[in-house]
Amino acid sequence: MTVNKEKIALAVKDILEAVGEDPNRSGLLDTPMRVARMYEEIFSGLEKDPKKHLETVFEEEYSEMVLVKDIGFHSVCEHHLVPFYGKVSIAYLPADGNVVGLSKLARIVEDISKRPQVQERITKTIADLIETELKAVGVFVYVEAEHMCMAMRGVKKPGAVTITTAARGLYANDADARIEILTMIK
Fold first, then answer.
1. Structural domains in the chain?
2. Is 149 a residue of the active site?
3. Reported pTM
4. What is the secondary structure of 141-185 as a DSSP string?
5. Would you give per-residue pLDDT tens digits along the chain (186 residues)?
6. 78 catalytic, yes or no?
7. What distance in Å separates the CA atoms of residue 56 and residue 101, rounded to the nearest whole number?
8. Annotated binding residues, as ranges?
9. What is the rounded distance in angstroms from the CA atom of residue 64 to the CA atom of residue 97?
């Protein structure tokens, strides 16, 4: 699927007119195509398969927790098409010493978040992908984000943070292991 920038630009022009703006005034002349290019960039995850980042694993004699924390991300709420942003922390227990390059975890977050989304789905998708593809003994994903749909409109509560978690394998059943991860994340 390729983003149809011309169609987006026409729609943006219609929106500008619908809110009472003049899309032909100097400050707005290039806005429709600028927005179209932005949408192509912020929705680039629609054309990507994050699973590909887990195809290459390294065999190490390592079976302890691997934690990459505070991976910054931004996404777009599928309900209002406004941004939400925050950070993701991913912990996993390798199976049979199979570890993945640390940057691959950040790439997974990037691919999954760059599409119309909800935070809960981001959290679940990352956990399920790592559990399935790495066959990890345990996976824990922690996502913390601020949603502009809550800050800019509706309830108008800037600064409110939403936290979602997903636990798989050992971390789903071991409260002490979850506490250890949460302590390290915080």
1. 5-45 (1.10.286.10), 57-185 (3.30.1130.10)
2. yes
3. 0.94
4. EEEEEEEHHHHTSTT--TT--EEEEEEEEHHHH-HHHHHHHHHHH
5. 689 999 999 999 999 999 999 999 999 999 999 999 999 999 999 999 999 999 999 999 999 999 999 999 999 999 999 999 999 999 999 998 999 999 999 999 999 999 999 999 999 999 999 999 999 999 999 999 999 999 999 999 999 999 999 999 999 999 999 999 999 999
6. yes
7. 8
8. 77, 80, 149
9. 9
